[in-house]
Design brief:
This protein has 6 helices and 11 strands. By secondary structure, the chain is an alpha/beta fold. It has one domain: Pyruvate kinase, C-terminal domain (Pyruvate Kinase, Chain: A, domain 1), CATH 3.40.1380.20. A 7-stranded mixed sheet has the order 1-9-8-7-2-3-4, with helices on both faces. A hairpin with a 4-residue loop joins strand 7 and strand 8.
């Protein structure tokens, strides 16, 4: 066995949904190359799940790959529609809807504090790699918590602009067993999460962030 190997990483010059179809293509090609049998997709509106099913699972070369849909919990402002969830079920695609592991549990009265604050800081830390890196990680934790992905299983996790290869683990084993093996694509300019702008000279500037920066979702 060689002591090294090369595999390319694609960098997008913007964050978010415009990269979705390229991200899916990169993820499926990587799954075939790495013989990964499961792709976990974090979705906010189901568009990525439909595209993965119709554009890739329909192809013979990707027939052995399964997809898992992960989304926000019921009642969230990005709650996936009933029509979309019914369509996902009709395609026999597992759908995980649950509280995101890094999201805090808010108290009734703000002055009383926030539960789970330490994990929310961990989610914020992951944004140094890209605005949706945290969602990629949490999607696998949630799928593993639900038993759809097994502990130790290697899967590809993606959002609209980020795709990574990971060794899965449940939330309780995040720091002991979860591993990010490879990054296949990510945004190099964080125009949504950190409000960066590219000037014609390619110099990157960063605007001051709001107190609550927007979350990146698949679409």
């Amino acid at each position: 066995m060689s002591d090294s190997f090369d595999y390319s990483t694609t960098y997008f010059c913007q964050e978010g949904k415009p990269n979705l179809h390229a991200c899916l293509r990169i993820a499926f090609e990587a799954a075939k190359k790495h013989e990964v049998q499961k792709i976990v997709i974090f979705t906010g509106a189901g568009e990525g799940i439909r595209a993965a099913s119709e554009d890739y699972l329909s192809q013979e070369q990707y027939a052995g790959i399964g997809i898992v849909a992960v989304t926000f919990p019921h009642g969230h402002k990005y709650d996936i529609s009933e029509d979309d969830s019914n369509w996902i079920a009709s395609q026999h695609i597992p759908l995980v809807r649950a509280h995101l592991p890094f999201d805090p549990i808010k108290a009734q009265y703000q002055s009383y504090g926030i539960l789970g604050h330490d994990l929310s800081l961990l989610g914020n830390l992951l944004t140094i790699f890209g605005g949706s890196m945290s969602l990629c990680v949490q999607a696998v934790l949630m799928a593993c918590d639900a038993g759809i992905v097994r502990k130790g299983e290697h899967v590809i996790s993606l959002t609209s602009d980020t795709a990574i290869l990971v060794r899965s683990a449940p939330t309780s084993h995040l720091l002991t067993d979860f591993i990010v093996r490879e990054i296949f694509c990510k945004s190099v300019v964080m125009d949504i999460s950190k409000k960066e702008m590219i000037e014609p000279t390619t110099t990157v500037e960063t605007k001051e962030l709001d107190a609550n920066p927007p979350k990146l979702i698949e679409g």
